[in-house]
Amino acid sequence: MTNIKTDTQNPPKQIILNAFDMNCAGHINHGLWTHPRDQSHRFNELSYWTDLAKTLEQGLFDGLFIADITGVYDVYQGNIDLTLKESIQLPSHDPSTLVSAMAAVTEHLGFGITVNLSYEPPYQFARRFASLDHLTQGRIGWNIVTGYLDSAERLIGQTGLKDHDLRYSQAEEFLELCYKFWEGSWEDDAVLKDKANRIFSDPAKVHAIHHQGQFYQSQGVFQVSPSIQRTPVLYQAGASKRGLTFATQHAEGMFIGADKPEKIKQQVDKIRAQAREQGRDPHAIKLFVGISVVTAETDELAQEKLAEYARYASPEAGLAHFSSSVGMDLSKFADDEAIPYQKTNSIASVNSKFKEQQITPNDLKAQLQLGGRYPLIIGSGASVAEQLISLLDETGVDGFNLTRTVAPESHQDFIRLVIPELQQRGRYKTAYTAGSLRNKLFQTGDRLTAQHPAAQYRLDHTEPHSGQQQQSA
Ligand SMILES: Cc1cc2nc3c(=O)[nH]c(=O)nc-3n(C[C@H](O)[C@H](O)[C@H](O)COP(=O)(O)O)c2cc1C
Predict the structure, then answer these.
(1) Which of 180, 181, 346, 422 is the most exposed place for a label (fewest CB within 10 A)?
(2) Higher pLDDT, 147 or 299
């Protein structure tokens, strides 16, 4: 009796689950596109994505998170030959083009879409995502990235990758301007659609925004009326000092790139402490860690499946991908040579591994063969469920980004074998909650709360569109 009461008052934390994917063949677990059952070569077909969205919704996934890069991986061996042969995120297509089609065949699945803010004006981006928030009925999220590839700068026609920390300063201003568009231009009841009086939108309730900053200037009314969430759910993966300051100020979901439970926990504690210092509720940021899972009916069968998958994996492609992440050509080192730390302008937090540990190309190839940079969890459904629950409880994360191995088989296996085990243990929902992606994640309504920095750009800071204009920023 007492136990039942305690359980009801303090139900165990339920796992939030995103599928982690990219609009390409080779995403994280490189080489598996060659597996006879893998379908990822069909990534340019709409039915590949609409089928995936339906599958994920059957498994009650909270979201499909789609990574993206601008640029190509040309650091390894100084060219793109292996990148092309192994399809290491090349070709890769724009992820936001997939959303409307997937939203049409689902009702609850959220979409976390990566967009690099360095290469487009905030206005164009804000308009596209506000439009998507309308069409998905409040199910869109944005993974904020600033880019780390020199190849992107060349493709876009800019010279030299901006300094790592300066990229985050630009991101701050980009967000501020987006908040003005999303939160500060239209009042909630501006759209009347009043046919009898010929008033679609009330001119008194649509306001010009003004922005004059270091990187951006804009003034005028936003073209999109208020959507369910207004600001999409904000995801970020900053891990460096500057990146963490940015993310803990703005993000509602953060991705942790570590592989060992103790490292993940360190990062979780750091993020929650920093969020508190920034005046935010530390639990207003949901924390996710990437995982790869190979599961089958028994532990033994799962090990056999892993061995079978591994035959198709390409550890060298993993190393080539890693070379671009750290901005260093790792083909230049002997297989058993410790890679020295060099300061680069790429992903600071990944590169810092070379400072902390002696790592050789052979170590990286072994680690990157399957599972990539994430914990690799193998076993029967019950065993995987237990391992996930331990990882969640031990580290304090809120959920996982599940990579694909053999697509779509690995997600189907997870849904068939692992989800029922998690549900039996009370650690996974048995039905979706209503409302927007934000409400599903936080149960605090569809909009950002008053504690979020975006709230300061709400309408009391703007003026009617035809009124006297004041500069802000
Ligand atoms: C799980 C995860 C997913 C990421 N996805 C992307 C991505 O899709 N595109 C991208 O350019 N960077 C991506 N990144 C890299 C981050 O944007 C960021 O550069 C990285 O986490 C390091 O942060 P730092 O710049 O503060 O060192 C991802 C990082 C993590 C941990």
Answers:
(1) 346
(2) 299
